[in-house]
Specification:
about 475 residues, Nuclear Transport Factor 2, Chain: A, four-stranded antiparallel sheet, 2 domains, about 30% helix
């Protein structure tokens, strides 16, 4: 494993996309959807990495990392990952807990006794966003404060001492401020900067060799982290449907602990592989890291320690998204399938999660229900529908004219780029499923009604209006 990762990193440094032996990633299909997403969104660039069977299997970049002067993105180009950084801050506290230097149930009063009500918030509540500490950045743009540098103590003084938004443990509300506090605790307990702690205990052991600390040029350069420079991606924004512009930069210090890292997608993929293989932390740490938080009223929230934790289509999915000024990130891990997808882009208007969905359609084995719909939609487009799949009522509806009209109108749209189950209910003894189907030139909605014996009673396709 160590040798194969080293080979992978050498390839990536040269800007070459890779596919390990035995990796089942359809590179041509991934290229196709990535290029389509780039063309349809107007994003300057996008860079992806895919983990298959627990190993880095594919990495490639598309578009321009910088527009002036124009510089192509490569698989070694680094991007800010913004809030995906929270995964690493949470891991830092777990590592310190493993060493017996703290407990996640310790209150902040142990290190910040003068926070008022906030002093009773525990580290676990910080990491699960259940502490009630006011978020300093709920907006999708830079506030006046955030355009100026701010030291960590100043952020804590301004925001963590405010009245709590709710009693700790009773609700869930995203808080960047909580992760600034978490990062500050790591530094107080370890005696090192947060970045140096992560470098020694996470990045170096996992061979994540090109991780850096994202910060604007006016940052305190006495810090040991290497900054994003001219060889890395630049940040871009736009207003409405206006021209693409250089994005303003967050003031130094604001992203600490909450959104402060930058890296190439393959580095993030190596972290994802470690989550899949559970190779870095202790067993109990992973149990806690992957366990959704339960509020005091018994409600379960789909967030654990720096990770969103969801079951979608019967699959456990971990991950986090990131959004900052001029950068967006999407990181998804399916641990049981030993698969992960990383999508990083240098824009702040085009959702990389949409591209992740299309890549997941390619690399994940479909559920039985999804496979049936994929095959049926393709058969409709090709005019080769097997009537044995339908009940007598279903066949009554599928007259020759219906089939001709469906084929003539759906065939020009090209193959499905994504088929996603959006809703499943029961009615009249039938299972009703609503499917979103994305083609290159259209968004469709399919309504499926199936009998208990699996026969289709209905399959209707319409233009999606959202």
């Amino acid at each position: 494993m160590r040798h194969s990762r080293g080979v992978a990193l050498l390839c990536l440094a040269a800007g070459i996309h890779i596919a390990h032996a035995g990796a089942a990633v359809d590179g041509a299909a991934v290229d196709r959807v990535a290029q389509e997403w780039l063309a349809s969104t107007g994003a300057p660039s996008v860079s992806i990495a895919i983990v298959h069977d627990g190993r880095l299997a594919y990495a490639k970049a598309y578009g321009a990392a910088r527009l002036t002067p124009k510089m192509p993105s490569t698989s070694s180009t680094r991007y800010a990952i913004d809030s995906v950084s929270k995964e690493f801050t949470a891991a830092a506290l777990l590592l310190l807990a493993e060493q017996g230097k703290l407990s996640l149930d310790d209150p902040l009063a142990k290190w910040f006794p003068d926070l008022g009500a906030g002093a009773a918030v525990t580290l676990r509540q910080l990491l699960t966003h259940t502490g009630g500490i006011r978020d300093y950045w709920p907006q999708d743009f830079l506030t006046p404060e955030m355009t100026r540098p701010a030291a960590t103590p100043a952020i804590i003084d301004e925001w963590a001492r405010r009245p709590l938004d709710f009693e700790p443990g009773t609700d869930w509300q995203y808080s960047n401020t909580g992760y600034v506090l978490a990062g500050a605790v790591v530094e107080k307990v370890s005696g090192e900067t947060l970045f140096e702690f992560l470098k020694q205990r996470v990045f170096t052991p996992l061979h994540m060799n090109r991780v850096t600390e994202y910060a604007p040029a006016e940052a305190d350069l006495t810090q040991t982290a290497e900054r994003l420079g001219n060889g890395d991606a630049a940040a871009y924004t736009r207003f409405g449907l206006g021209p693409v512009l250089a994005a303003p930069k967050e003031g130094a210090g604001w992203l600490f602990g909450a959104a402060g890292l930058a890296m190439q997608p393959s580095d993030l993929a190596l972290w994802d592989a470690s989550l899949i293989e559970r190779s870095l932390l202790q067993t109990e740490s992973y149990r806690q890291e992957f366990a959704p938080v339960v509020l005091k009223n018994g409600r379960t929230q789909d967030y654990a320690l720096g990770l969103a934790v969801q079951t979608i289509g019967g699959r456990l999915r971990l991950g986090h998204a990131g959004a900052g000024s001029g950068f967006l990130a999407d990181n998804r891990v399916w641990p049981n399938e030993k698969t992960a997808i990383v999508v990083l882009t240098n824009n702040d208007w085009a959702d990389p999660g949409e591209l992740s969905n299309r890549i997941a359609f390619i690399v994940l084995t479909p559920t039985p229900e999804e496979a049936r719909v994929r095959d049926l939609f393709q058969a409709i487009q090709q005019g080769t529908v097997d009537r044995g799949l339908f009940s007598p009522v279903g066949n009554f509806y599928l007259t020759p004219k219906v089939l001709r009209d469906m084929r003539s109108s759906l065939s020009p749209l090209g193959p499905a780029r994504m088929v996603e189950l959006e809703r499943e209910t029961q009615r009249g003894g039938l299972t009703l499923r609503r499917w979103k189907i994305l083609c290159r030139a259209a968004r469709l909605e399919a309504t499926e009604r199936s009998r208990p014996d699996g026969k289709f009673e209905e399959f209707m396709v319409a233009q999606r209006q959202d």
